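User: I'll paste a sequence; please echo it back and then give the predicted structure.

Assistant: Echoing your sequence first, then the prediction.
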Amino acid sequence: MEEPRDDILFILETHTLEPILSTIKSRCWIINFSPLNTDKVKDYLLSKFSGKLTEKVVEKFFNKFNGENLSEIIDELYELTSMDIDEVSENDSEQKEVSFIDFFRFIYLSNFYKVMNYLDDFDITSDRKLAVQFTQDLIRFCYLVLKTKISTEEKDPNLIKLANVIDEENFKKVIEFLSSVQNYIENYIHLNLIFIKLMLLIKNSFKK
């Protein structure tokens, strides 16, 4: 930093200037950034994804905002738009269907960190009753995916996309596992282990 070339630009980032040497600070143009205003962030997200996602979906992701993860939230919202999930019904069953498509999409992308965050958001890995309900609903959804795969009737385009990348034989193993696990999930010590195995089975059910 003593005598950089004209085409060199250094950008230094720090939470505090105290440990920075005065000789370095004297060579820098110091710009202070204030914390992001949450109301402005919410308005920005609603405006940016207006017409692409419902306000309810955008607000759900905005609620994860902690002052430092805006870019991650925007990436997640863009992923939703790429899946053509642009309508979330007020009907609970339809909301669950969209949520399961999210669940499978994260696994398909091998983003297991987001999968676990998704499960945590719904308290599935901590509330055993919710875990049981989740597995029961997921079984019904899996059968719906299989039905979509073998039927020629017109279906939800998101279900068709999912069904097309599923290997039927391996997918049946997912259903078998779910059927066996719901009987003892209430007493199982480590819920996370159950869902990790479920994620691996689902991952293996996608066509190579």
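The chain has a mean pLDDT of 80. Residues 104-208 form one domain.
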